[in-house]
Amino acid sequence: MNNSPDENDSTIYKTLLESTKAIPWKIDWASKQFAYIGPQIEQLLGWSQESWKSVEDWATRIHEDERERIVNFCVERSLQGEDHEADYRALTKDGNYVWIRDVVHVVRTPTGEPEALIGFMFDISERKKTEQKLLELQKQLEEYSYKDGLTEVANRRMFDTVLEREWHEAKRNQHPLSLIMIDIDFFKQYNDLYGHLQGDEVLKRVAHTLNNAGLRAKDFFARFGGEEFALILPETSEASAIKIAERCRNLIFKEQIPHAASKISQILTISLGVSSTVPVSNHEPKAFVEFVDSLLYQAKNAGRNSIKQSSK
Question: The whole model's pTM is what?
């Protein structure tokens, strides 16, 4: 007996659907039962066609971290009669997870109620891997843009960003904000004697040593430029900042880095400028930095290997 045209068309459509990588499915809304799911599902997730009986089977195979959100989203959209998409991790029979994108079409009754859900599942695992790599690359690029390439501490750009943030925080809460500017003494002479490669090594060593000078998570150290560094100390009085400046000087002293070209010592030393302020509306962070930088150069002009302080 020959098949009718409708039966032939149905067979053709089914063959086409089952030959694609996309996995077709249909759920009856009233019973919440699967009316159909493509055989490709077993190859992708390991679960047989027969095991997909109800929406409960679908829900329990969504990663537990995403299950409630995805189910609620799909139910809400379906009740509103809106076609939708959802990305989630689906559990495989062997206990692993595959990233799935479900594209859902809502079939409605003449009165607008949901009658059935028809959709396709797509394996988007490779896409998600690519997206993750791109996110990691973007994060890495952001880190590079805020990190000094030589010393690997924060750079001037990051210093400006953090200072602006801490400045507004201190102004809002009327807390003191302290800043220490640090410069390596006779660094040009060091380079002239030992060479620029050794000079680079010293910059890295000094940066690594002083990066640990702040004792709190909010304390922030950066390379300001050349052989100059800066330490931002939120909620810190000048008296406390001076103690940290002394700590910086002692940390470098303990390193005992030879500097035969220094005019004041046989080991490497640093000079520091220190100040604290409670920002007010007519003060700007740039002016504060310039002021503390001027204190630093007063320390250098006064003989180096010293700390110059002054409140502002």
Answer: 0.61
